[in-house]
Design brief:
By secondary structure, this protein is an alpha+beta fold. The chain folds into 3 domains: 51 residues, no CATH class; 124 residues, Tetrahydropterin Synthase, Chain A, CATH 3.30.479; 66 residues. Helix content is 48%, strand content 22%. The chain is built from 8 helices and 11 strands. It is rod-shaped, with a radius of gyration of 57 Å. The N and C termini lie far apart (180 Å). 12% of the residues are buried.
Length: 331
Amino acid sequence: MSGEAIRIRVSRGMPRRITRVALSMIAIGILALIVTSMCIVYIPVGHVGVIFDPLTGKLFEMPVPPGYRLKLPWQEVRVIYTGTDALHMWGTGTEPGYPPHYPRLECYTSDSLRVWVDITVRFHVNPDKAPLLYMRFPDLDYKDKLVVPKVREVVRNVIGKYKAIDVVPKREEIAHVIVAELSKSFKEDPMLPGVIEIEDVVVRNIELPKEYLLAIQRKLEAEQLMLAAEYNRTRILILANATAMAEILRAKGVALSKILIANATKKSLELIRRAVQNRTDIVALYLYLTYLERIAETGRNVYFVIAMPTEGGYIPIIYYIPPPASSEERS
């Protein structure tokens, strides 16, 4: 018994069966990974997802919020940006080295003057209305087909309410009006109400025609000249009034001085008359000599002859009044 060999029968089909099972498990795992990856979608921050079922042709009205989300493998998810977006309009729209932008707006003021407006509009898509936006614009070209036309229309309407002379100084006011009008226009849009929400508007520049600017410059210069002329006229009037008042005051002073001198002369003559016992001829002679002395104060040599009455006739008397000495002669 001990010398007998023990035979073990091994089936040749076992390795093949194990291999087939292993391959099946691997295939199932790969398929499960593929299906799982098709059921999971990632929505970045600042975006929402819109789910479309091609089997039923249904577009889900509820947007998918940011994060990892589940869906059926055959469903399609379109990601839509809902963060702040900007629409730039300036220059010719083809300047290199700048972000993508559109040409500046050509507008007309209320007095039919053509102006050019550089503007930036910041807006965002209402996340709750993203499915409606996708339904109307499957290619998501809503900026070109919706936002740009409305901005052009509203800006031109707003500029058309202002005169050319007011558009530049009232640029900030115009920006506020554009925000209000754009918000109202998007909110009341018949097909996409409230889909686009306006954040703010920056009116970068309003360019007026060069001819108009030159006309304004000439007008300002003319106004400055008018103001200068008015100032000079007022100044001359003030100086004339001051001169007239000075002359009046001087005349009053001279008149008052003459009155004082006359009163003093009157009193002195009265004293002389009393001293010479009411002889008026001597008083007249004194007065005559006094006035001659004043004539001599002019600086010239003065000679005059007086005929003195006597019992036998008149005796001529010659008087000489020398000119007053100068300051050098006095020293």
